[in-house]
User: Which sequence fits this backbone?
């Protein structure tokens, strides 16, 4: 893949991912009903929505910034933990396949963003 094409794909994927995480983070902080019901089904306390929401907003900002590469790496790791944890939580409580696929798709999108960021960094 050409460097310019990699950069364009990276920014499209990363911005869309960050927007989704930012919106989900806001919904968590606001404790929307769907989020409360989902966490209750998984056995988590309601206040976890606020913790996860703040983490997602901070992580979305971290993966968009270009100055602090270590902070960006930690944000990618944090999102990976969130999606792996979401998959495992749904699997352990016996959620349907639809609930298992979503965190895996998001994890795949995260990996595309991460690996393209590493490719771009190595080409500098």
Assistant:
């Amino acid at each position: 893949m050409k460097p310019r094409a990699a950069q364009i794909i990276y920014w499209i994927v990363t911005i869309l991912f960050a927007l989704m995480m930012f919106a989900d983070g806001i919904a968590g902080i606001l404790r929307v009903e769907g989020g409360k019901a989902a966490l209750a089904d998984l056995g988590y306390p309601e206040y976890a929505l606020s913790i996860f929401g703040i983490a997602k907003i901070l992580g979305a900002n971290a993966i968009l910034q270009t100055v602090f590469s270590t902070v960006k790496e930690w944000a990618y790791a944090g999102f990976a933990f969130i999606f792996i944890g979401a998959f495992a939580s749904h699997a352990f409580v016996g959620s349907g396949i639809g609930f298992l696929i979503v965190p895996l798709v998001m994890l795949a999108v995260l990996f595309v963003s991460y690996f393209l960021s590493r490719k771009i960094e190595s080409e500098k």
In short: Residues 3-30 form the longest helix (28 residues).
